[in-house]
Specification:
This protein has ten helices and six strands; from the N terminus they run βαβαβαβαβαβααααα. Helix 2 packs parallel to helix 3 and helix 3 packs parallel to helix 4.
């Protein structure tokens, strides 16, 4: 016995190319258990139709007239979290992919993916998982396995200012700092003034607390 209309999982297509929309709709309607409830030709229309129709999933192009697919995705995730988004795009660049994932997309498919890839993506995402096209899945692996970049605390400070701040975090006075770094007392005070201004603190105590929280000092 086939699924009744109320059992069908509702899908929305958002793409500005009518030929692609037609082809994707025909493909999706061949899948058992799914029904296409609407088609959007722009970002604003995609957001409006998602709000009105409440589909389980939107198959979203990245480049839409008006609001971009990524901006639409961000709005859907924030306002209609029960609707999942899978990006369907021609773009093979990392920045777009990671922007889509940061916006909340749960899948990323390249246009031209076979019917089984599309079916698997929908089933995986409906079941609560994530799905990435094989062309971009390697980016996820590379991102996860590469060592994290070492972040320098307070990048707004120069190396010498950071050295002064580290000694402040250690509780060293001006004389000790001057001796350790081969500076005059006056120069140390000047460094303090610049550091306080850049960190937006009022005194060395506040600067020391901030520095220790960032991992400076012993």
């Amino acid at each position: 016995m086939g699924n009744t209309e109320t059992d069908q999982i509702k899908l929305l297509i958002a793409d500005d190319h009518p030929v692609y929309r037609y082809g994707l709709r025909n493909l999706l309607e061949d899948f058992d258990g799914f029904t296409v409830v609407g088609e959007a030709r722009s970002g604003d229309e995609a957001l409006a139709l998602t709000h009105r129709l409440r589909p389980r999933m939107v198959l979203m192009d990245v480049n839409l007239p008006g609001m971009s697919g990524i901006d639409v995705t961000r709005n859907i995730v924030a306002r209609m979290p029960e609707t999942s988004v899978v990006m369907v795009t021609m773009l093979e660049d990392r920045d777009t992919f990671f922007a889509a994932i940061r916006a909340g997309a749960r899948g990323y498919l390249m246009k031209g993916s076979g019917s089984e890839d599309v079916r698997q993506a929908i089933n995986t995402i409906v079941a609560g998982g994530l799905f990435f096209d094989t062309e971009v899945a390697k980016w996820v692996v590379e991102y996860l396995v590469k060592p994290p970049a070492t972040r320098t605390p307070f990048p707004e400070l120069t190396d010498r200012e950071r050295a002064v701040l580290e000694l402040v975090a250690d509780g060293q006075g001006n004389v000790a700092i001057a001796r350790a770094l081969g500076l005059s007392i006056k120069t140390v005070r000047n460094y303090h003034s610049r550091i306080f201004a850049k960190l937006q603190v009022v005194d060395r105590t506040e600067a020391a607390v901030l520095a220790r929280r960032a991992g400076l000092g012993h």
